[in-house]
Write a structure and sequence with these properties.
The chain has a two-stranded antiparallel ribbon with strand order 1-2. It is elongated and about 120 Å long. Helix 8 runs antiparallel to helix 9. The relative contact order is 0.13. With 312 residues, it is mostly helical. The chain has 16 helices and four strands. The longest helix has 26 residues. Strand 1 and strand 2 form a beta hairpin. The protein starts with a helix and ends with a helix.
Length: 312
């Protein structure tokens, strides 16, 4: 008991040896290690303070932080916990290049969008060409105008199932140009030879109207399903929503055109034939513009995703 009291007295009065002080501090730091590591991970300021607070474990050692001393001598296994974490810098992606492929927006992209939008307009215009004048159509052909719409939509559904495979195999330019040519041929079958007099004698029969409607209906999915592919190929990420919405909404513009132009022109047999002639001529012009101006993809991809798709 006298020995224990003497050690306690020497410890409390400061007459203890440096080795005893070092052992006691090492034990205290070992007990505080979980809390110190937890606070260091959660609070960067506390971790920084712990790293710069001086502490001597013995009179012969230089001043170091308590955590560093514990790492060096007391608990070597704690080194991974106390080592400072190095944050990796975020990857830097250039705005103009990804790897060695330059990125740029081609001004010709708006021409591509305009051509596809016009083709979408013409396809729905052809589908609903006679809805504004059903009585005149009944007088001229002897059939309800709604029958052509039903035939058009049935052909459209069948062609939709083929679009993905055909587009993947042939590419954007070939499928759009082929569909534009098919639509122009269908409009010619529906109108006959454009602007030949007297008009009533050269208006084709109902069988030709059905055949032309089937061709246009099968061509429409290549304009209606293409806008997302066109946007991803030609437009930057900030323009894709606008480009896709523009091309898709031109289908509705075509329906409106059918009601307006059809209601103004197709009020007589001669007017009906002239109306179909106008539709055929516009379709031929659109097909020619597609063949001359429409392209598969730009020379430089507009985005990293477009560059990756082109590389594949």
């Amino acid at each position: 008991q006298r020995t224990m009291r003497g050690d306690l007295a020497r410890f409390t009065t400061g007459t203890h040896s440096p080795a005893l002080i070092s052992t006691a501090r090492n034990l205290m730091l070992g007990l505080l290690l979980p809390f110190a590591s937890g606070y260091s991970a959660a609070t960067p300021r506390l971790a920084a303070t712990a790293r710069v607070t001086p502490l001597r474990l013995s009179n012969a050692e230089p001043a170091v932080s308590g955590l560093q001393a514990l790492q060096r001598k007391a608990l070597p296994f704690a080194r991974p916990l106390l080592a400072p974490r190095r944050r990796r810098p975020p990857p830097v992606c250039s705005a103009s290049k990804v790897g060695s492929v330059p990125l740029a927006l081609d001004p010709h992209r708006w021409v591509q969008l305009g051509i596809l939008s016009m083709l979408a307009l013409l396809s729905d215009w052809t589908c609903f060409a006679t809805v504004a004048v059903p009585s005149e159509w009944m007088t001229l052909e002897g059939h309800d105008a709604a029958e052509l719409i039903d035939i058009f939509l049935a052909s459209n559904v069948v062609s939709c199932f083929l679009f993905t495979d055909i587009a993947a195999r042939l590419g954007l330019k070939k499928v759009v140009t082929g569909a534009a040519t098919m639509m122009a041929g269908g409009c010619l079958l529906r109108s006959g030879i454009p602007f030949v007099e007297p008009a009533i004698e050269v208006m084709p029969g109902y069988g030709w109207e059905v055949a032309g409607t089937i061709l246009v209906g099968m061509a429409q999915p290549f304009f209606q399903c293409t806008p997302p592919l066109l946007s991803a190929t030609w437009f930057g990420s900030s323009e894709r929503a606008l480009a896709t919405a523009t091309a898709i909404n031109f289908n509705q513009v075509g329906i409106a055109t059918a009601f307006i132009v059809g209601g103004l022109m197709a009020n007589s047999p001669e007017g009906m034939h002239a109306y179909f002639d106008v539709l055929a001529c516009v379709s031929i012009a659109a097909a020619a513009a597609t063949a001359l101006l429409f392209r598969d993809r730009p020379e430089t991809p507009p985005s990293a995703s477009a560059a990756a798709a082109a590389a594949e």
